[in-house]
Amino acid sequence: xxxxxxxxxxxxxxxxxxxxxxxxxxxxxxxxxxxxxxxxxxxxxxxxxxxxxxxxxxxxxxxxxxxxxxxxxxxxxxxxxxxxxxxxxxxxxxxxxxxxxxxxxxxxxxxxxxxxxxxxxxxxxxxxxxxxxxxxxxxxxxxxxxxxxxxxxxxxxxxxxxxxxxxxxxxxxxxxxxxxxxxxxxxxxxxxxxxxxxxxxxxxxxxxxxxxxxxxxxxxxxxxxxxxxxxxxxxxxxxxxxxxxxxxxxxxx
Length: 253
Hints:
Elements: H1 8-18, H2 21-25, H3 27-42, E1 51-55, H4 61-68, E2 72-77, H5 80-93, E3 98-101, E4 113-118, H6 129-142, E5 143-153, H7 156-161, E6 166-171, E7 174-183, E8 188-197, E9 200-209, H8 213-222, E10 229-232, E11 247-252
Parallel strand pairs: 1-2, 1-4, 2-3, 4-5
Antiparallel strand pairs: 5-11, 6-7, 7-8, 8-9, 10-11
Helix pairs in contact: 3-4
């Protein structure tokens, strides 16, 4: 049986809600933040010729922005529908981007990238923590000497701080009900999304494995990252503390 993240129907139903105009509009600022953190961490900037891997690229939001800045970009995702949309956007903008259908637990191009990214809480959905480590090990193998990995996810600390049991809201002409619950000893956050639109009902649940900063560091070490590992609380470079907006980890280099 396919995992929920391999179900085409799930992404077709939720894509317009996840990647609305606001999410597209924030991309340049996110890439600016990545550039700033890279300059601080590795004393270099992104620019023409920088080799970038976007792991779980979705519809290619960040791939497109990196390519506009002259980077050589590879976007990897399991969903062919996302990749088709990304290729169409790249073609419309006259951008050359290598979009690949692949599983991040297995995709490896050894030593090929100066920067690898996994953004928008795309990490932590596999069935086991061992599979998460496999994905991290594959990303490690993809990095060139001195390469950097950046992951943006929902940290266990901020998930506990901001926890709500659910809410109702409107988006893209749909009425949406979300429900959240803690599984185990804060091992997972269970998400249920109920979407009502045009007389149709979409109801899905999925679990996100939660990592604290120290737990994620341990997983990165087990996956082969031996250099410094830094944590940030947002793309402006603020610390990962009680005021953090998200968990951003920077490893390698």
